[in-house]
Design a protein that fits this description.
Layout (H helix, E strand, L loop, with lengths): L6 H4 L20 E6 L4 E12 L4 E12 L1 H22 L8 H4 L3
Antiparallel strand pairs: 1-2, 2-3
Length: about 110
């Protein structure tokens, strides 16, 4: 049984032209939620504004939501992994915060 070719494998792309739509926006995010359903994947991007260690309350502002097919989400996952591997090779390991940075401990 032969593997079915994807569109990218069927079409020889000479050049990809990308233009910004009139509604294009660029956001910084440091808080992301992911929701999945049988037909789509939703990424919800937010920006944390305040962390109150005394009350344990984190305040964030939702900036944008992106909906995509599971197939496209899998491709984004692959590409993001590749880019983070390249980043690590260039700049070294990406530091991760310790749990104590969030729980108020040492």
């Amino acid at each position: 049984m032969t593997k079915k070719k994807t569109v990218a494998e069927k079409v020889k792309v000479e050049k990809k032209v990308v233009r910004k739509s009139e509604s294009f926006a660029s956001y910084y995010t440091n808080d992301t939620q992911i929701q999945t359903g049988p037909w789509d994947v939703r990424l919800i991007f937010a920006r944390i504004e305040e962390v109150n260690k005394d009350t344990g309350i984190i305040e964030s502002v939702r900036e944008a939501e992106v909906h995509m097919s599971p197939q496209h989400a899998l491709r984004v996952h692959t590409l993001l992994g590749q880019q983070l591997t390249k980043y690590g090779a260039t700049f070294g390991p990406i530091p991760q915060p310790k749990a104590s940075d969030f729980d108020g401990g040492d």
